[in-house]
Amino acid sequence: PMTSSLINIKSLSREELRSQLTGAGLKTYRADQILKWIYSHHASSFEAMTNIAKAERGLLATVFFISSPNIVRTEVSEDGTRKFLFELEDGHTIESVLIPDEDRQTLCISSQVGCQQACRFCLTGSGGFRRNLTSYEIADQVLEVSHLLSQEGARSITNIVFMGMGEPLANLDAVIKAITIITSEDGLGFSPRRVTVSTDGLVPEIEKLGKAGTKVNLAVSLNATTDEVRDRIMPVNRRYPIKELIAACKRFPLEPRRRITFEYVMLNGVNDSLEDARRLAKLLRGVKCKVNLIPF
Fold first, then answer.
1. Cα angle for residues 175, 145, 169 (degrees, 5° grid)
2. Which own/partner contact pairs does 229-238 have at CB distance under 8 Å and 24+ positions apart?
3. Are residues 34 and 182 in contact, defined by beta-carbon separation less than 8 angstroms?
């Protein structure tokens, strides 16, 4: 209720923020300072922004507010993997997963509350779909976990994967805006080479992502070598069958030495035969790619 008439400053792009600041009688260069405080120093209030005059900080607080999700629960696996449950402003919850490895620390982030894709092997889809996340709700997962690791003196996040709850390309506009926050210098400053967007295979949106110029990596959840099996385990295949999907992948623009990752969840007796392995190799011939086999 206290913030209902205020603007969530994280919901604005850099240019939108500059325009709002001009309207409030403030200099546009304040936008860069504010963004740096939020994304580099994790400022949760305007009072913390000490290189901005006190009167201006007071003015900012009458126009804007800074939202933050709450980490309401953390679960730790025996291999060190951590799962974070975030509560959003409207009470919905999402999960992010931090996966440690020898040379990297990967954060899997969500793009939707729930999922509409209904893949048979995925638990998220069984809970139904609630809503898309905003760009700042997506980026905030990275911001909050980064801040937590910094407080702990732990190793920083090295890689980010859009592979949590939801289908990222079904929320493409917000995902592209979130990528901008995550990769820009006045945002979280990650290299696009360290960011991967995973999709079930929404062909038109793969094309749009390629044309958006984000330069992020693409991962495709394939999981079958025939339309008959993929139709059964991934309903999206009825709209965009394997042939169309592979063709879209071949057209996807790749930076030098980059490859598309094909994720293949091996379901016992369903898609894991020697014939499947041979078909998979034949299917992906001519695609610059690598295959990630995932035992279910």
1. 15
2. 229/270, 229/271, 232/120, 233/119, 233/120, 233/121, 233/267, 233/270, 233/271, 234/117, 234/119, 234/120, 234/200, 234/201, 235/117, 235/118, 235/119, 236/117, 236/119, 236/200, 236/201, 236/202, 237/201
3. no
Enter the tokens of residue 65: 């507010």
- 95, two tokens: 């999960």
Q: How far apart are the first and last CA of the chain?
A: 45
Mean pLDDT of 75-94: 96
Q: Which two tokens stand for residue 274?
A: 């020697």
Task: Please provide the average confidence, as pLDDT, over all residues in the chain.
Answer: 95
CA 229/CA 237 separation, integer angstroms: 9
Residue 183 has pLDDT above 70, yes or no: yes
Cα(94)–Cα(74) distance, rounded to whole angstroms?
12
Q: Which residue shows structure tokens 């995902």?
A: 175
* pTM of this prediction exceeds 0.70: yes
Residues β-bridged to residue 108: 97, 161
Q: Angle between the 242-251 and 203-211 helix axes, to the nearest 10 degrees?
A: 0
The whole-number pLDDT of residue 1 equals: 43
Tokens at residue 190, please?
A: 């990650």
